[in-house]
Batch of 4 targets.
Target 1
Amino acid sequence: MSEQSNIESILTESRVFEPPQSFDERIGGAYIPSLDAYEELYKRSIESPDEFWAEVADELDWFEQWNTVCSSDFPDVKWFEGGKTNLCHNCVDRQINMGHGDDLAIIWEGEPYNGTPEIRQLTYHDLHAEVCRCANALKELGVNKGDVVTIYMGMVPELAIAVLACARIGAPHSVIFGGFSSQAIADRVEDAKSNIVITCDGSWRRGSVVPLKDNVDVATELTELIDTVLVIKRCNNDISWQEGRDVWWHDICDQQDEDCQCESMDAEDMLFLLYTSGSTGKPKGIMHTTGGYMVYTYLTSKWVFNLIPGKDQVYWCTADVGWITGHSYIIYGLLPNRVPTLMYEGAPNFPEPDRFWDIVERHKVTQFYTAPTAIRAFMKWGDEHPSKHDLSSLKVLGTVGEPINPEAWMWYREVIGNNACPIVDTWWQTETGGHMLTPLPGATPTTPGSCTRPFFGIDAAVVDDDGNEVGENEGGLLVVRKPWPSTLRGVYGDRDRFIDTYFARVDGMYLAGDSARKDERGNFWIMGRIDDVINVSGHRLGTMEVESSLVSHDSVVEAAVVGVPHEIKGTGIAAFCTLASGCQPSEELKDALRKHVGEEIGAIAKPDILKFTDALPKTRSGKIMRRLLRDVAAGTDSNQDVTTLEDFTVLAKLRDEE
Ligand code: WT7
């Protein structure tokens, strides 16, 4: 897919797919059964937000009632002030108290597959015992309410258990995706001032072991803050051990009491930090708090996926808990809805490219949520893989992370959904905590490539710099004009960056950082980022982040990084580097630089295309001409190709002379 062809196809896309008239028994009735029902309720949610959200919040448990529903405006948003609750309680204890302790909470499948898969099923009772033991262990290790706990693990059940244990004792977690490097761990630990890391000896990825504990060991040399490392044994790989610092999960958790009281948390107490990339080199710690996030992820999960307990539904989101999608739509939004959430440990194509469909068939998955990049990879691997499996359990298909090209959308609908499942293309962000623009499966007519309409309470608009709405089908800035319950509450330790990034450009509105247009039917179309952020396989990366890691290598003097259309990843990374005197361009150096970026940030940040140049094309004022670089990168389909500097300066000169 090229960016251009995608934009052209979405501009001409006019196919409309009506929602199914009715769902079968396992889905039951649709919560929102028609577009009229959506529109009526949407109007109410915008006109009387307090009433609307109070009703939703009442479906969950609070230890003390709130005084005000929404009590302030951007940037200092507060919801349910005065209310006290605990999100772990609502995920686990509440289900037990209502008599559902024996229902399945989590279904987990490991990656290794030797004829029979490794499966663990946890009921709410099981989960309660495990979470309490972990919570008590964290307390024994000296973690207090308010202390940030860093979590760097593979997709094992203990990851969900650790997250919930933190919520239980009021210790905000900072989960770092297991693909990030030691340097990335150390940076985040320093920023969050965190003293404890929970990790695994290793995690499985395509049959080999990712050495998570080794990575944490290196991180402990890069920062002095880490004094405790709690380690789960998963892969049995060799690891080094430091007495006094390292603690085995089973040694400490197994001996703990199976009960641990939930901390009573203020609605506005911090629930977690999650680092994400922005337009400067340094990732920012996005802060979410307890009450509003709980209510919003609960309702979006329920209505966007039509989750109904007691119907044998099985929900599967293929994201990693290391991203916001995993936080909101594997754990926090799901468990309060009492539909089992499936966690899969490994790669989509291990041992064979049909692994996902095998899982769907065996576990009879009803709601499936994945990313466009995965869909494109499956399209490429061939229809024979899904065709081998009975996918008739599927009822709702979701996508998230990046714009989905209409070809991939249609393939998803036809080959995976048998033309019978509505597709919910959900637009949202780490900062928004939950779905913002999305179809509702029983209500919204869908069109390939559009994330359709705002969720309840979301006052989204496409505006110019003055905050005025632009015309139909005109491109503009995507903003949200009113606070919603799971609005980010800040960038940890950096108030200025929080204001500058989200609230400075358009007065009084939340600036998403995406451009968009709204069509004649009121459907939104995301057009791309407006900042120096690129979206690689649905993962956000700052071009500056990659540039700083390149120039931190001795051989590189200057680097410029741009996005380039990529068949599978959506956007790939192209890097242009000028070398220090005495350094010669070579394939070895390219490999070394890619490896270096992998060590500095993580494998997802390794450039797909790397070019050496004597100079970067710049404007007279010294600004790198990224557009030109994007054109140069896009015109090259292979990183083997060594474009000479001559081509490059010729292009640059041409542009300069225009
Ligand atoms: C950025 C947010 C939200 C969880 C995963 C990514 C892009 C996300 C869509 C979509 C078009 C999308 C946007 C957004 N994005 N979902 N359905 N259609 N673009 O979270 O890492 O915070 O990235 O991802 O550009 O701003 P994130």
Target 2
Amino acid sequence: MIEGMDNRIYVDGGWQQAAGSDLIEVVNPATEAVIGTVAAGSAADIDTAVAAARAAAPQWASSSPEDRARILSGTADVLKARADEASALITAELGAPLSLSQRLHVGLPLSVLASYAELVMAYPFAEEVGNSVVWARPVGVVGAITPWNYPLHQIVTKVGAALAAGCTVVLKPAEDTPLIAYLLAEAFTEAGLPPGVVNVVSGRGPVAGQALVGHPDVDMVSFTGSTAVGRSIGAAAGGSLKRVALELGGKSANVILPGADVTKAVKVGVGNAYLNGGQTCSAWTRMLVHESAYDEAVALAAAAAEKYAPGDPLDPATRLGPMVNSKQRDRVRGYIEAGMAEGARLVTGSVDAPIDRGYYVAPTVFADVQPGMRIAQEEIFGPVLSILRYSDTDEALAIANGTDYGLAGGVWAATSEEASTFAAKMTTGQVDINGGAFNPRAPFGGFKSSGIGRELGRHGITEFVQYQSQQF
Ligand code: NAP
Ligand code: MG
């Protein structure tokens, strides 16, 4: 079904012809070949989908936690059964190495669905507070808008939580990666989700996305994407008093304090910065190193970076695929030029294309980066690491906190207590202490311009409820 998709949208539990005839071509960024087409949904399609979500809302709102859990874990089962197809699709749409698609792009959403299935059973939907019972009611119809970089995970984090809360959904996936969203829609139906609870309309941001944000019958917008678009969505939602959740960009710091295991911190740090071609909102794109360990760290980082040779995503040895599209490739190369022009030292990498065909960028490391440089302030979204030097921990903290963003980060020190004490002063939503592992049940989201609200875990479900207090 997903292969050879054409001008259709997924509404009310099945496929429907889109209202218009405008199409979006889906391109494989490694081969530059068109691999399919999907509908470029219009405002009329969004209307149809929102009507279906509205009609399905009362029944789904009154479903039991057991029903929701069964469908969330059933969807994980269907996805697991289609994992090979889903991984291949993500690699084809996004260019992520196939092993990464299997392990992370498909593997993580499976864990997230399982976590919501478990958490919904324990969720405090009714709580006694004195003479009141406080009910957590679903917000209603949610408009979900997602980016291409983790095309399944980012959908599952919001749609799974919205379903757990009892909301219905209209999803507008990124135009670069719509096919996996349609596969997920089929999986929900196969798992027994009632028609209309999740609807998918592919389309362009300024058309379908904007229509969804502006739709009077949408109660909440949950958006993941760039800070620029997030600002405009937040403003529009404010104007119509819709609830809004925004997961936006980042420029996260990996702070290596004196006494830390520099070898490990650099190796893990480079891997984090280059994960998914550097197209990761939480990537540690700035490495902060004390002057006493600086030269050692730069040499280690360059050696680690050179192991990320760009290559065919289907080759099991490949760790770095292409950028998602030519625009993204050009943007990343522009930042490499900017880094050189501003006087940062290019330790490894290049503006030149490492491979002729496909949207590839060479893994790049800059040293002697100053905190004010564009490559230290702006989100690049590619395999470009900036290494900055500090001379005391106050300076490290000032640099770490010295951007508009605050999404993630890492701190390495001789002890986890020391790292945690430093992390407490960081204005950022997630910090890994001495390489602590990503936890899909911990809230994820940003301080400052990295967003409003949290996804994942119990906190992620809470994003989609509103409270009704009944007094007795
Ligand atoms: P983007 O341009 O903001 O697009 C995100 C989504 O919004 C896409 O579906 C896009 O549609 C849609 N959109 C664009 N303009 C819109 C408008 N005017 N109204 C409504 N919807 C609109 O971001 P991107 O370049 O695709 O993704 C990369 C960005 O996402 C990075 O900044 C990254 O940091 C951020 N991100 C954040 C998180 C997080 O959790 N904090 C996670 C992942 C990514 P089209 O696809 O048609 O453009
Ligand atoms: Mg885009």
Target 3
Amino acid sequence: MPGGTDQTLRPFLWRAERMYPDTEIVSRTHDGTERYTYDEYGDRAAQLAHAMDGTGVPEGERVGTFCWNHHRHFETYFAIPTTGRQLHTINPLLPDEHIQYIVQNAGDRIIFLDPSLAEKLAGAYDEEAFESVEQFVVMGAEVPDVDLDAVDYESFIDGHDTSYDWPVVGEETPAGMCYTSGTTGKPKGVEYTQKMLWSHTMATMSPQGLGISDDDVVMPVVPMFHVNAWGMPFTTTAAGAKHVYPGPSPEPEDIATLIEEEGVTVTAGVPTVWLGLQEYIQAGNDVDLSSLESVIIGGSAAPKAMIEWFDDRGVTVDHAWGMTEMSPIGSVSRLKSGLAEELSYEEQIDKRAKQGLMVPGLEFKVVDDEGEEVPWNGEDFGELHIRGPWVTQEYFKRPEANEEDFEDDEGGRWLKTGDVVTVDEDGYIKIVDRAKDVIKSGGEWISSVELENAIMAHDGVTEAAVVGVPHERWQERPVAFIVPAEGVDPDDLEAEVMEMLGEEYPKWWLPDDLIQIDEVPKTATGKFSKKDLREEYADESLVEGQVPEESAPDDD
Ligand code: AMP
């Protein structure tokens, strides 16, 4: 059989270019707002493909990006996988050591990076970890003055042919890659095959997914280094819709301006982003949201008050749940037909604040501690297991994680999500706890175990436990409980521990509070009882309010 009929990204690019040549791609960049059409996009993607061929990096090899959301990053989204290479989006907010591990583990051959992130990458650069990297390409027309041997993107693609004979690439070929932070150990790589991205695109484009069509103007605020901006650049292209990219570190004002000026109909991001927009509007800034039809909120739970706030402005919140391992969208919380008539507004909000209904194509089950499936009664809870065409079957080069996080039966392979959920009679899942010991702050992971180990490395500490506590702005923030060694001055200890952590981790990883206690409470099996610590923290009203701005990730 000749190839070319597989489920791959290539037809999406072909269709957009041929059927929507005049539809725009708009992007806020380091140099202002730039715009062009799918027609020009196709030309530049072809030039990039030729430039990639010129590097000698063959099909099947990984190419990294270290970039915000803009049109050049989007050009890599098709030009890299559609030539059979693998696009590896690297999260620039991670601690340097994680970046080193990720680049080394992936074996990236080329890294595209933003000028504003060049210093960060140069700081993380380590000869051994970056041994595989042959070339750095800076996303712009010039190279900033940093200690990296780089060329600028415009020169890199300049002069190449604007048409390209896109090859036949098999559907099982890895097309994308993203790392997720695990409970222990280093981040785990998830590979996205062509087929995973194709099926995720088709499912999320449908009305039961995110419902994107060619009259939409789609602005992903969720970074393109987070699971391909939740797949939206692919979905938007497949639908032939207009793209809007908010560029480096967008502020609420930038987001508001783009919504107004570009007529954005669908946007997406973590709750922290929308809290920022709310505050901006509440501070008296007049923002016209009339074009906006839907805000996709995910990554952390969408607060009920946020859903209501958007309702009051005629904007529907599509509350979505997903994971890096799932390309990433799993469920969307929208009212099933008929439910709006049956339920009071308050009941509807309760429903919509749940993580919702699985997108068609996925199967799930909820399993209790004894391995039994729990009934769908909205009360019994267990760990959510999931499988489907866009759910990964393994972690990249991590056999031990594969043993732990997947389970096979005759129907296929389940991913054990680590999310603890209930399911109601209508099939809506609701996350009630997290079995994995990690903290999610403003959409970014912090490993409590890694912080604990770092703190316990201090001579004056005998035990340390780090827990996530609820926070209005960042959803969760880390708080550390430490047991000082005998004879240690408590004031000095706190300052020393914070200084030590500050040397190793970005500011947003540092605990908001260090609380000295006599002993860490333990469970019956001798593990730290984080539940008790969280309760103790809440009971004693130790929460001190807002964290300083600089202690959180600055993207979203
Ligand atoms: P990531 O792999 O970084 O996308 O994180 C996935 C995890 O984020 C999930 O396993 C959940 O723990 C959490 N998460 C994602 N979406 C939601 C949501 N809508 N509500 C609550 N938690 C969420």
Target 4
Amino acid sequence: MVIWKSGVVIITGASRGIGAACARLAARENWSVCVNYTSNADAAQAVVEDVEAAGAKAIAVQADVSKEDDVLRLFKVTADALGPVTALVNNAGILENQMKLEAMSAERFARVFSVNAIGALLCAREAVRVMGKSHGGQGGVIVNVSSAASRLGSPNEYIDYAASKGAVDTLTIGLAKEVGGDGIRVNAVRPGLILTDIHASSGEPGRAERLAPQVPAGRPGTAEEVAETIVWLMSEKASYVNGALLDVSGGR
Ligand code: NAP
């Protein structure tokens, strides 16, 4: 039997939604948790308090994942406070108002890709630098939060967002092969319609409910259902899962 000691996880975008659910669940599995956020300090602090109430250690760290200096600080502050980082959940993500591609601005493309794609690349790079055995680390796990949008394409809504998640899928496939021999597993989850605040950013807070009839499961999913899959991928129970793109979408 493999005995797995949970370590230190950085969860980007953990003040709300899927990231917050991951933080709460990881705490129950004895992970020490860095709750990253960009602007909502009160929400991040509430997640920290939930993690501590579960008996685990937690800190909240403000950092914009699209900024390299912020990402470097995020990893350093976490290691100083909680110990060597052994897992990253690359979860922070944004989308903007629903529209056709023909109406989107170049500035919007840059905003969406800088958080969803470049942010994921920067955080993954730092995780490899601290966790890789060839760098003196103890190995670890990266879970990228992609989206079913990467295979559905999100026509008439946000093709830019879908394309940025395609980049996350490709990052997952390549990095899993690149660092598998360095003691790091890299996988992605692709959530479908999940009940979080993100749909309000699209201009349609009730989007998940509207599209629920398209889901074979007949309903939107919850952040907790996605978190269960992410925390499982973080664990030694998923020791032979590497390079997988795992749909958590109720069959949609
Ligand atoms: P959410 O409820 O809107 O929460 C977004 C989180 O990301 C917040 O904690 C926010 O921090 C943080 N964040 C935003 N920009 C950031 C930045 N530049 N740097 C650091 N943190 C940042 O989103 P969610 O629905 O939980 O989505 C989480 C992930 O799942 C995203 O990658 C999203 O694309 C993906 N996903 C979601 C769904 C869905 O239906 N909900 C489906 C597929 C994929 P603040 O609180 O400080 O603003």
